[in-house]
Structure formats: structure tokens, C-alpha cells
Amino acid sequence: MSDEHNVNGGSSKKEQLEKFTSDDRGKKMTTNQGLKVSEDEFSLKAGERGPTLMEDFHFREKMTHFDHERIPERIVHARGFAAHGEFQVYESMKEYTKAGFLQDPSKKTPVFVRFSTVAGNRGSGELARDARGFSTKFYTEEGNYDLVGNNIPVFFIQDAIKFPDLVHALKPEPHNEMPQAASAHDTFWDFIANNQESAHMVMWAMSDRAIPRSFRMMEGFGVHTFRFVNEEGKSHFIKFHWKPVLGTHSVVWDEAQKINGKDPDFHRRDLWDSIENGDYPEYELGVQIIAEEDEFAFDFDILDPTKLWPEEDVPVKIIGKMTLNRNVDNVFAETEQVAFHPGHVVPGINFSNDPLLQGRLFSYTDTQLIRLGGPNFHELPINRPVCPFHNNQRDGYGRQTINRGQVSYHKNSLAENTPETSTEKEGGYTHYHEKIDAHKVRARSESFKDHFSQATLFWNSMSDAEKEHLINAFSFELGKVESASVQNQVVEMFANVSHELATGFAEAIGITPPAEQENKVTKASPALSQENTTKTPVTRKVAVLLGKDFQDKEVNTVLETLKEAGVQPEILSDKLGKVKGVEGTELEVDHTFLTADSVLFDAVYAVGGSEEDKAFYKKSALFVHEAFSHFKPIGATEEGIKLLQVDEMKNSKGVVYGGEAKKFAREFIEAIAAHRHWDRNVV
């Protein structure tokens, strides 16, 4: 086939090249000093699986420039919201770690948690298809410990030197600054197709995990492999998990897009309101533990950040609970000024040689220096440790401590050599004594080169509905890509993951489906499917569509039963004020059809009223129809039942109607607990 024409109707290769012309086309890569670069894929390490070296001036120049590219907001994770809380361990973890906050089950450790999207700016909508940040600052008596993670357990890249490239590709395209907070564009998918280590993360990003129902129903992961080290110096490799007590749940894509229009603050409002109402979000902390001698006992490299540890192979040990019980007093002073860093650790928690983690240990401090105006960001109230801190660091932008005395160096005699260092027994932090005997190389271990097996594992683990959502997500994203070449490359790439998946979205975007190839990965991990999560009606919001002259006794019984089950009903009518029942009961209206929408609720209870009000029933019918199309539970009694005539709702899953009030309420609560009814026939 000639380069001048594409059989799938795309532009010619020549036209595409002209479109993406840049001043750097055809040039050799150099540093900012003009030095030619020989390698831009791998940071400089002590051996292929060793730690990243400070000597790597190319990595530091590239990362420093990236860290300082946004003023004043965060480069990534700009759109965030946060809350205060406390953490309590269930049992002493002394066997594995000497970390003080993981020893005493009676002790509560203050925490501050920031949730965020990754790609969008501070003004972007919260329901973008995106990974979510899930970062926790523990204010321990041994110093601050930051668990800086995401709601997805893996990442796009294996080496931190590629992080600027990833974000440059993901962010709005620089020539027109579009699209905002979205990955559905050429440069992102061009990066994916040409950096195939991203295959596993892309599966998560295209799944329902990327459009969570709320921060309260979202898992968190530490992503990287860390170490627990106990008093005897014995090390175990670990991964961190946050498990939401309410289960892990999502919205559908059409719903997500509408929520961004109806209420772009949907996630932060949900978190704020839940805490104000006393429905405190809870998450259990779990750890996966691998003995050091078992480092090479698996069919994947445990240091590879694009790989997870299947829970069926390495069980998650639940060790404690975090409760968020206080909203911030000031978003800027707390949520915006909080500074997380994976290098903020306490004794008993150490690092692995994961090359992405190694780079983050440099990048985060560098980022805070520009974002928060200098080296004293630790003195901002939200960042201050609860324990005292003493050192010889002085001055700089934003300094708040007024240091007295003439000595600010170590060692000294004028101040009797204080502040002095601590021994390990006194709580002094020591790095794990790992033997390193290696050459300095820019390389990556051969064990990192399997890019597709866990992506296939993820696909195999999905329910039928989740697989359908994945195909639709790829179809939407690639449907927004203008380059036929990039579309073809992505189809070919994901044929390595699943022929069914690649064929599904290839046909949707008008690309020739790939040839079927043998895939030897048949393993599945049930823990990866949201179908297997906790399901509860607690804190679910139900829109109650109420008209004049409703049946008082029945409605009051249903509402009381819902509230007893932890469900939160909110009254909708065609105007604010009070709506009156046939026996004189008056209920306060929370929303009108103008101020609320079905996408902002988990379920709908249609009641109506005996008075014929065509406008009310027309609005109610649209409200119910949309909720039904998003697979939500629908309940109806009395006049509300006539709203179920369309779409054959009466014969569909998750639709409950009529009958004795308490029995109806119990059945409706059961339908609400299921979250969504994916086997429903939706026209």
C-alpha cells in the first residue's frame, strides 16, 4: 500500500507528518547544554535492577524542567479535594515492621487524605476518564509518613525518566490546548502505541475504575513495591492497598459526561456532604507481603510498576482502618498547600529498586520547591509534623521558624554538637542494607519486557458488562483520534491483549480487525472485577419524585424504611417549598427538576400524585427513563407506576413497583444495594 493513501479513509502519511511538524523533526536529541543524548528510555542505575544514581545529570535535567512547567498549580493532580481523619491499626505489625504507628491497636494516628484527578487543570470536571490520586499523610510521632498512591495499582511506565514524556503526551495538545482533562486525542494514543509497557495501565484507564462513583467508593494503591523492615533488620517486600468499606463502584460513561455538566464538583460535594452528615468514609489498609527470599518466585518481576501482584497469589492482609471525619477549614491552606512525597518515611518502611519509585524520590521535592515557593514548605501548617523537628537548615523563602544562636552546622563544639544524630535504637532512620555489586548502566532488566500478560489477565477477570464497557471506552477514545496510523497501531498493540477487545473497537472506528493470534494467558483474578466488591445500600442517594396529593401513609412508611437501611432519600418536585399529601402530610422539597438530575442520584423512587399535572409527569418520565438507561434501581408506587410503561421497565431487572409498603421498601433496598443492573435490556 502506498504511503500516499490509507485504505481506511485517513489522511496520507505525508499529510500527517506535515500536521505534526515541529522544529525538532529530524534532529538529534541533546541536553539543554547541547550534549548529544545516547539513551532516553532508561535512567542510570547500579545494575539493571539496581537503584537510580544521583550521577544521572540527564535524568535530573529532564525531570527538573518537567517539575517546574506549571505555575502555580500542580503539574498533575491539580484538581483535588481533601479531608482529615484518623488511622488505627488492628493488630501489632511488629513481626514485619518497626514503624511505630503500626504497633499499638489502641492508638489513633491523625491523617490528611487528598483525592484528585491526574490530567486536568484545577478548573476541570471531576468525572473525567482518568486515574485518581489517593494520597495519605500520616502525622506519626516519628515524623510524617506519606503514602502517595492512585486508585489504580499499576502505572503507564517502568522508569521515571519517561514520566515527562507521558504527561506531555497526555496533557492538552500544545498547539491548540485541547482537549482538557481527556486522553481521547492523538498524542496520548501515539505515546501508548509507541511505548507498549503502558498496555496494562491502559486497560485499567479504559475500565470502569477510571470513572468512580465517589471517592468513598474507590480503592487506593501504593503502586510501588516498598519494604517493611523489623527490629531485627529482616525485610519483606510489600504493596499497600486501601479497601473502601462501601465497596468499589463506578458510573457509566454517558452518566460521567452528563455529571461533568450538571455538577463538575460532584466528587468533592459527595465527600464534603458525607462528612458533614456524619457518614464518615472508611477504608481498610491492607498489605501484600512477599518474603525477600521469594523475590524471584513469580512469573513477573515484583519491582515492575506496570505489574500487580494477583491477590489470589499474594493475599491482601488487612491491618487497620482509616476514617475521614473532618472537612478542611480552608481549601487553599490545606488541600492546595499540602506537599506529599514518597520519600517522607518513618523507621520500618523502606524502598525497593523500582525505577519509577527511585525517580519519584527526586522529583517530588523538586516539584514542591517551585510550587510552594522554596525549601520551607514543611513549615506550612498542613505539612508540619506533630513531633518536633531540629536541624541546621536555615533561611530561604517562606521561613517561619526564628532560629536563635550562632551555630547552624554539624559537627560543632559551640553548641555541644547539637542537634545530634540518633542511633538506630534511638529511632534514627537507616536505609535497608542491600548489597549492590553492579556496573553503572542505562538499561532495564529483561524481566520487565513482558507488557501484555497482565493486561490479558485484567481482561480475563472482567464480567461481561465490564468487557463491554472496555470496548466502548476504547471505541470512544480512538474515535476521537484523527490519525489513522495511530488508530491502526493501537489496534495492533491490543490484539496482543485480546482479539475480542481489539476487534470490538477496531470495527467501531472503521479499522480492519486484526488477525486472530494465540494467547496463552488464561488466568483470571476475581479480585479485579468490581462485580465482586462489597454491595450495600448505605449512603446511597435516592431521588423521590413527589407530586401533590401523594399517598401519605405509604410514602412515609417507605421513606422511614429507606432511612433505617442507611439510604438517603431526597424529595424532588416541580417547585421548592412543601408538597402536601392527601391526608395533610407536608414534606420539604429538596430539589426541583431544574436543580437536580437523575445522574446525581443512585436510584429513583417515583411516587407522583393523584392530581393530573402533565408537566410534572413529563419531567418525571424523562428523569426515570434516563436513570433506567444508566442501569439504576427504579422503584414506583401508586401513580408513579404509570411512568414504567415505556421501555418495558416493568419486566426489567432492578425495577420494583407496587405492593405493601414495607415489602416494597425492602425489595427496593435490595435493588439499591446491587448498585447497577447490567443484565437489563436497555433500548
Describe the overall structure.
By secondary structure, this protein is an alpha+beta fold. The chain folds into 3 domains: 44-372, Catalase HpII,  Chain A, domain 1 (Beta Barrel); 459-531, Catalase, four-helical domain (Hemocyanin, N-terminal domain); 535-673, Rossmann fold (3-Layer(aba) Sandwich), CATH 3.40.50. It has 16 helices and 20 strands. The strands form 4 sheets. Strands 2, 3, 4, 5, 6, 7, 8, 9, 10 and 11 form a 10-stranded antiparallel β-sheet that branches. Helix 2 (57-67) crosses helix 9 (355-371) and helix 12 (484-494) runs antiparallel to helix 13 (499-508). The radius of gyration is 27 Å and the shape is globular. This is Catalase.
Short précis:
By secondary structure, the protein is α+β, with helices and mostly antiparallel strands.
